[in-house]
Amino acid sequence: MARARLIEIEWPEFGLAEGTPDWRAPLGVYRRRLSQVEEAMAREGLTHLAVYGDREHFANLAWLTGFDPRFEEALCFVRPGAKPLLLAGNECLGYLPASPLVAAGDVEVRRYTPFSLPDQPSQPGALLDGLDLDAHCKVGVAGWKSYGQPSSIDAPSYLVDELRFAAGYENVTNAAHLFLDNTNGLRTTVDPHEAAFFEWTNGLASEGMRRVIHSIRQGTLDYDLLQQAQFNGVPLSAHMTLKCGANRVSLASARGERVTVGGRFSCGIAYWGANVCRCGWVAASARDLPPDAEGYLDHFAIPYFEAMANWFEALRIGATGDALHQAIHTRLDQETFRVFLNAGHLIHLDEWLCSPVWAGSAIPLRSGMVMQSDVIPSNPKYYSSRMEDGYLLADQALQAQLEPGLLDRCRARRDFMRTKLGLPVHDEVLPLSNLCGIVPPYLLAPHQVLSCAG
Hints:
Blueprint: E1 5-8, H1 27-44, E2 48-53, H2 59-65, E3 74-78, E4 85-88, H3 90-93, H4 100-103, E5 108-111, E6 139-142, H5 157-167, E7 172-174, H6 177-180, H7 192-214, H8 222-227, E8 241-243, E9 264-271, E10 274-281, H9 296-314, H10 321-329, H11 334-337, E11 345-346, E12 370-372, E13 390-393, H12 396-401, H13 404-419, E14 429-431, E15 448-451
Parallel strand pairs: 2-6, 4-5, 6-7
Antiparallel strand pairs: 1-15, 2-3, 3-4, 8-9, 9-10, 11-12, 12-13, 13-14
Helix pairs in contact: 9-10
């Protein structure tokens, strides 16, 4: 691999999917997912599974049913041999037919007014009516995360308390791992329908980021820049972020600051299944940088880009999470680059599903995983650099199920990364973003990007 350097290019045009894929899958897919959940319950010895969702922590419920709570909490009880029971509050009740399972009559629906917004009309009704819960049952609760202790559950206590009162404290445990365990989690790999939607949202996010970056000028208002994202109503997986001027609080939204030459800049556009982030200096060259950032290109941006080339060399089906960790940490010293979070993670409907990447991780990467190239270096003088996009790992069997146009776009992106940027991307890696690997260290000169091509 050649040492990275600046090259001049026109940013490529890969296009977007011709249609507008729906994140909801066909009915048969949801029926299959319910069967998969029941099989996982049987392996765990669970008689009941309570899948909790709210506006922020919706993804397990949405994946399972095609229903995502819009205002309130919701709860779905899965019981092998019986229809799932979906409890929703006043306002979500009218949204339930969005679920293909509900529309088909495959799910029993119940109004549970304690889930409703404060002071709305209520009606009597017990949470656990008809569920036959007793001390002989074993209940799993899938909230958002797993914890060190199975008894730690991140659903509201008033729900968990009722379950424990009915079945016994020791019989109610955290079951989020059924969905997000790195090895066996049901949401840690995607099917062709999900792949198509995530490729579309990565395209939307990356084209929005392209417009944002090419609109950066001295004095531009951050609100005006984010209008370039051209948000079209697709649900967000995280708040859009844009930091410039004096707005240097991490993860901050636009707030009326103006771009300043010689200042720092970052932006993130995140839809379900996609998060495209870039950051760098508002500069046309090193001459625009503040004095204490001298050497940014040679001592920070170039080593970061070379480490990411090493990361792509390691990114392949069967590689361990430790291989990705070592690809970064053997090249970037902690004192200078301060990479604290995992060197990559899985993305799904939620922006961070889980991560198989850490020191010593023996977890193998699998076909169907969508990996974020989310490696975050930071330095008080040099600031940061970023090429965060999504990459689908797909073996030949999965690739054969993908739409030909999608495959053509992914292969064109991969070829660009190899030939123009010198990034060694394997055949089983499908770049989903139209900005795959593009890093302009000086944002006022976006056509100057880093490359390891010989």
